Amino acid sequence: MRSFGLLLLVAYACSKQPDASAASRNAASPTPQPSASTTVGLDGGAPNASDAAVAELADAAPPAPIGPAVPKVVLHTGDSMVGGYGGLTKALEAKFKPLGAKFVPDWMTAISIVSFDHDKHFAELLAKHSPDLVILTLGANDVFVPFPSSLVGSVKSVAAKASKGGRECWWITPATWKPDTGITEVIKKNAIGCKVFDSAMLKIARGGDGIHPTNQGGIEWADKFWVQYQANPPAVTPIAVDAGQ
What's the pTM? Predict the structure, then answer.
């Protein structure tokens, strides 16, 4: 009986041993991994709303740079250097119109800074056209005044009207044909609210009088101004920019 009981115990123990072939099969089978098409979150887990938002921002193209605003209406006014014998205003119009701006040229012959300041015409132009850019070409008839400092008040007044309400303004000084008595410096220092483009002794093609630019001279003048106009966005305080020789 003892021998029979021992045999039963041995048989029971053998029945509890692991199946070697099954263990081998389990060892050879790797842990299931996600396939290539499986979507995972940025932290390796399941995707969520925040992950998707971050990924969308990361893939978005950078915003386009913002450049200077294109004026809707440009008023170019002043003395006969604006138009008259030469083509400065024609050349400037050819630059602004392709941008979609309306260009309004206007000039008065033999007008000085003082008379321009006192005349109602400038105020009427501003009221009629509501420009967001004013370009003044003014001072050619004051090139040889004996006391240019006496014009400080009028220079400030004209500049204040041109730049009222934060309107962009450029004052193009006379393209002098001989050294002036000081009007260029007076304009540069006192045209508060406007940028000042210094055209003194600019080398451009001039007409038979040796003073006013020809159409080609107007193009040359406008080209030099245009470089500085594009490089200098609106500012509160006036700056003086040399045109170069």
Answer: 0.71
